[in-house]
Amino acid sequence: MKKLEIIIQPEKLEHLKSILDENAANGLMITNIMGYGNQKGHKKMYRGAEYGVNLLPKIKIETIVGAETAEVIIKKVVAEIQTGTYGDGKIFVYEVEDAVRIRTGERGEGAL
Questions:
Q1: What's the CA gap between 91 and 72, in Å, rounded?
Q2: Centroid of chain to Cα 46
């Protein structure tokens, strides 16, 4: 099993949710976050004065899927979500040793 931690621009959330639904990701957790990557924020103008905005709004989506499904999701996200500009986001992939469904005691992929 793999845990995918996907960080994207807020406006891409619905598109990402449809990709996850198409690929049988059973559940997901969504968190509103702020941060910056290589772009280190951007400049804005307000009443003629320029100021820097270095923490940008992002969305973090976490889901746990089988290893084969993870690769399919990663390829689709990279192909369909990217715009080619700074701030498109990142995908972090983690190994998941086990999962336990508290209600039934099921373990492994059956618990997902």
A1: 13
A2: 31
Q: Which helix (H) or strand (E) holds 80?
A: helix 67-81
Q: Is 103 or 52 the better-scoring residue by pLDDT?
A: 103
Look-up of token digits 């968190």: 31
- The two three-digit tokens of residue 83, written as one number: 């715009």
The model carries a pTM of 0.83
Bridge partners of 3? Answer: 64, 94
Residue 38, helix vs strand vs coil: coil
| Nearest C-alpha neighbor of 26 from the set 9, 7, 1 | 1
DSSP state of 19: H
All domains of the chain in start order, with CATH: 2-111 (3.30.70.120)
User: What's the whole-number average pLDDT of the chain?
Assistant: 89
